[in-house]
Amino acid sequence: MAESYRLSLLTYLQLASRNLLRNRRRTLITLLTMSFGIATLTLLSALNDGWLSQMKTNFILSYTGHLQIHAKGFEASQNLNDRILEPEEISRLMQGYPEIVGWTQRIRTSGLASAGGSSAGLQIMATDPEQETWVTSMDQRVTEGVWLRPGMSHDLVLGHTVAQNLGAELGDRVILMVQRLNGEMTSEVFFLRGILETGAPQIDRSLALITLNSAQQWLQMEDSVTDIVIRADNHDNTGTLYRLFAQQLSERKYEIMQWLELDPMVKQWLEFSDAYGFVVLLVVIILVLIEILNTMLISLHERQKELGVIVAIGTKRSQVFSMLLLEAVMLIFIGAILGYMAGSSIVYAVADRGINLTHFANAFEFFYMDPIIHPQLTLGSAVKILGATLIAALLAGIYPAWRATHLSLSQALRIQ
Amino acid sequence: MVKPIISIRELHKCYWVGTMPFPALHGINLDIKPGEFAVVAGRSGSGKSTLLNIIGALESVDNGNVEVLGHDILNMNRDLRTQFRLRNIGFVFQAYNLIRVFTARENVAYVCQLQGKSRKESLDIANHWLHEVEIGHLGYRRPDQLSGGQQQRVAVARALASGPKLILADEPTANLDSMTGRHLINLMHELNQRLGTTFLISSHDPDVKRAAGRLIKLADGQIVDSWDEVPKTPQSLASSCPTSHLPLKERLRKLLYQRRKARASKGKVDHR
């Protein structure tokens, strides 16, 4: 006798939609509240994604590139003896990969600079000036003077804070002092040709740039370098390139580092942003959940008798459960779509112009951020927002639906 | 001998409000034969609705046996009862109880859809039954666009649409004016005669009683030939509600009540 019949989806949808329209004002208020929450969430996510993307781009283009290849142990020791002896062999590997926009070879070492009566500790970076322009945007960040050119053997560019600290001006003599491969100290005179502002204070207060050829001669390193820096066509291809080089280069001789590993603070900041985004998502979803739960419970209370009747005439309790659950899901789904559309519209409206937060520019600078944030809609955050609201719908629908299946039939039918 | 469609033996049902027992049915024995047009008459609170709800597998009992269409409905689980109602029983309620968001024909078609019929077939069946109850032209109206009499006709059509062998109608004319009520009862009687469907109707409406093929009079939860209202004390009410069949929670509640009563009367003796 216990045959099981299914109601068609159309019947369920018809019941759910008409029940939602039964009290239009209440449904409208619920939808508006929910849409407002989802729209706010969409906007906050877009802002978060926008400034994270800006931060990544600024970080990568200001100095690190997407990937760096070093001789094994160099990043930890910063010792010139841990160097790449045949950089051209590795450079040849770069050809033929469309994901690579450019690469450059560098020598990095720490040293001392003195000009006039002042001196300062700094990071000396020697690079191929032409190749560097394919990898980072340092050449565009020169605010005074000129960017390096090949053949400038005794010229240097300084970060603007270093220049300030040394009291050096364009054309001034700056003496750099470093340790050679054999351990002896050596110094050389350079002329200040340019001052740059990368936007990252930690770089601007420590960077001295010279050409690769002059550094190789001065430090007696022949053709060897300490870094090969690669720029990918987009952030998402970093992993692909990492795997590619990991396969081709000996793990014992080389270390390959992604941009995220090169600055632990940036990594921590990105993780913090994810956590912050999650908390905001959670708070909004909980509010949505409470709103729906409240609406559904009031609706359930008003319809006890009708639910009693539909069970009395033969509706299974599982079918009643599905009806109520579908109602909640439908309500949240419509609210989520409306909210997401409203939020997206605001994002599109301000995306190009950006949101100007110049007032907080100093704080943003520290995190490689521009003071004008361009909100950005990403597929990931759309999936997160809509997925989370769907889960909220299920959670908010389950309890009223369960309550509906546990109504006392005789009591429900007696309600006047 | 024809096997009864409803067979009830020693049926007891008691409601508890807090610790106060309210016996609704007390020792009911009843057989209803197939095709009967039977009316259960009695004043408000006499147990008519409770009896119909029990026969309709909507309510549990404290004691007794109830067989409907040869099935012991008291030993069925919740889902089996639902299926049983869907296949065998049609309901007509006092307050019509149509689904507000459905049109008249969707209300009638709904039970057919529950039985697994396609939407189109269900709507065809609904149209047929709405014509049978003479409101075929009102199929597209929602309940709030229909008069009480029209709504009750939709309810009758809904009750018949699932092809039940038994229709239970609880005070179907109570919310209707006498003329509309009379028409409805005539319609139900005519359907009973033509289709052979058994009708069991609870009512205190004289018109309904006059139409009855069989009249069952209830008073204070018992079947009587004539009204016999004897005011009962709480003690006698309690004693008419056996506890052995009750769930533990209710047994405890009743025990507490009896204890409190005993303590109160003992207190009175000591005081004297």
UniProtKB/TrEMBL annotation, chain A:
One of its GO terms (biological process) is lipoprotein localization to outer membrane. The chain crosses the membrane at residues 28-47, 275-300, 320-342, 385-402. The keyword Manganese does not apply. One of its GO terms (cellular component) is plasma membrane protein complex. The keyword Protease does not apply. Residues 279-408 form the ABC3 transporter permease C-terminal domain. It is found in: Cell membrane. Its main location: membrane. InterPro entries: ABC3_permease_C, Lipoprotein-release_system, MacB_PCD. Residues 27-239 form the MacB-like periplasmic core domain. It comes from the Bacteria. Keywords: Cell membrane, Lipoprotein, Membrane, Transmembrane, Transmembrane helix. It is a multi-pass membrane protein. Belongs to the ABC-4 integral membrane protein family. LolC/E subfamily. This is Lipoprotein-releasing system transmembrane protein LolE. The gene is lolE_1.
Automatic annotation (TrEMBL), chain B:
Residues 6-245 form the ABC transporter domain. One of its GO terms (molecular function) is ATP hydrolysis activity. Transmembrane segments: none annotated. One of its GO terms (cellular component) is plasma membrane. Keywords: ATP-binding, Nucleotide-binding, Transport. Belongs to the ABC transporter superfamily. Macrolide exporter (TC 3.A.1.122) family. This is ABC transporter ATP-binding protein.
